[in-house]
Design brief:
With 275 residues, the chain is an alpha/beta fold. It has nine helices and nine strands. Helix 3 packs parallel to helix 4 and helix 4 packs parallel to helix 5. The chain is globular and about 55 Å long.
């Protein structure tokens, strides 16, 4: 299997930390030819075992140049893991349009930019696999993460559609929907500017963030997502959706479909201490 893996070129966006880094390290160890991206200067970061390149998914030219660089070296791209993403927590009212657009620019349009660049390559090859890192928050709205959820809900719809469009060209599309993973995203995450000065939501926002930070700290390591990504790559007939998380998180998604909306909403608010 190792020799076969060496023939597969993998692009992973947002590979300098968290889930992206775990995926890049894992696939590199398994023999894949991994290219990770970061919007920062790789020379200013610690050394990586895999090839790290500068690419900003928010910028058309940067994405195009990054893809061309890989093609110049490898002449193919077999697998893309769209992982780059940001989260800015805050009440919907406290989220400026600029802050909302920033999240969509990276989490949604960044994925679209990469897909538009790699799809002609994969069609010409007659084979390829796009794996989009979504979230359980792309299936269930989470208080004070409304715009982050919106980007992931949008990514879910995009991926559903794209999967059908490219199937006849030998290209697979899959979604990975992690729950709370120990990346400290909430503990070190950004908050909207108005969150600090609008007392209307502050108590509930703080309570919800504390719960999120606790759940992430107690969650599994990003390596579980990396292993799942490899399993998806190796699957002969990969599915559209793969969830990675605790049994409780799996049950929450199921309960949304089964419970009356009012009861489900009440339970979610109780959990996050939103009064």
């Amino acid at each position: 299997m190792g020799n076969k893996n060496k023939d597969k070129v993998v692009l992973i966006t947002g590979a300098s930390s968290g889930i992206g880094k775990a995926c890049a390290e894992h696939l590199h160890r398994r023999g894949y030819r991994v290219y990770g991206t970061t919007r920062r200067n790789p020379d200013e970061l610690p050394a990586f075992a895999y090839t790290m390149m500068r690419m900003n998914v928010d910028d058309n030219d940067s994405v195009e140049q990054g893809i061309h660089l890989i093609l110049a070296k490898e002449n193919r791209i077999d697998i893309v893991v769209n992982n780059a993403g940001i989260g800015i927590s805050g009440a919907v009212e406290d989220t400026s349009l600029d802050e909302a657009k920033a999240q969509f620019e990276t989490n949604f349009f960044g994925v679209l930019r990469v897909c538009r660049q790699v799809l002609p390559v994969m069609r010409a090859q007659g084979i390829g696999h796009i794996i989009n890192i979504s979230s359980v928050a792309g299936l269930v709205g989470v208080p004070f993460n409304g715009l982050y959820c919106a980007t992931k809900f949008a990514l879910e719809g995009l991926s559903e559609t794209l999967r059908m469009e490219v199937k006849s060209h030998g290209i697979h599309v899959s979604l990975v929907e992690p729950g709370d993973i120990n990346t400290a995203m909430s503990a070190h995450g950004l908050e909207t500017r108005e969150s600090a000065c609008n007392p209307a939501y502050r108590a509930n926002h703080t309570a919800a963030l504390n719960i999120m930070a606790r759940d992430e700290a107690e969650g599994p390591q990003p390596s579980v997502v990396a292993q799942r990504v490899e399993n998806i790559i190796l699957a002969p007939s990969p599915r559209l959706r793969y969830r990675v998380g605790s049994l409780i998180e799996q049950m929450v998604v199921a309960m949304k479909a089964l419970l009356p909306a009012r009861l489900f909403e009440w339970g979610l608010m109780q959990y996050y201490r939103v009064r």
